[in-house]
Amino acid sequence: MRSPKRYTEVTIGNKQFNSDSLDIDFLVEFDSDPEPNVAEVSLWNPSVDTISQVKKGTPVILNAGRDGDIGVLISGTVGNFEVIDGDVDTELKLYVGDGLNAWATVIKKSYNNAKASFIAKDLMTLAGLSGKIDLGKDITYTQVVFNGPLKGAVTKVAKDTNSKFYIKNGQGFIVKRDFKENSIFVLNKNSGLVGRPERVEVDEKPGYRVNCLLQHRINVGSYVRIESKRVNGDFRVVKGKHSEQTELEVLPI
After folding, report:
1. Hey, CA dihedral for 14, 7, 66, 100, is it positive or negative?
2. pTM score
């Protein structure tokens, strides 16, 4: 069987690079923890001019995929970077944070007799985030006051409503703990399943670790159907990472 061709494209500020002209490596982890995900993106032997233009806060968009099916793995800003000079090669390593600017937003606002869904939407608007709100339960606050970083405000609302909050590709999600997207990804030997699913504990529950060919569409909340000799069924993606392949940790639905 033909080996699928992987393609990577990185936009740093207003400059774009791709894997046809430059070696690019990445590690993009994703989960539903409230802390921002930080991806590692390495450009090998970039020009001196490219290195000189990188600074903290520079916007970065990483697109990758295979066989022409390309999509966003992370859209964020440079939180830090380093230049590593080896004997032969130079590595420009970027640490790209997802939603760092939103996290830095300070919320100073009070609400009276307000639904949690209204507050959640308002908090995301104040932080400049679009996204999805699908609370575990929509309670009414008699009074609640926020005076501090966005993290504290959304963490409280998520906890009070049996929900979870995370940022993915610059979008905010305040959703049910068992939230799953509508799209179904079938993983078998013909569609990209690599090796055998491994039984592991996921969020203190019995689940599986699964590897597949790089698939940019799979993320937190994705719905996968595994078809293999030992494991068959429908699962929800809880966490994972994109690199040479996509690695998932899933729980049964």
Report:
1. negative
2. 0.83
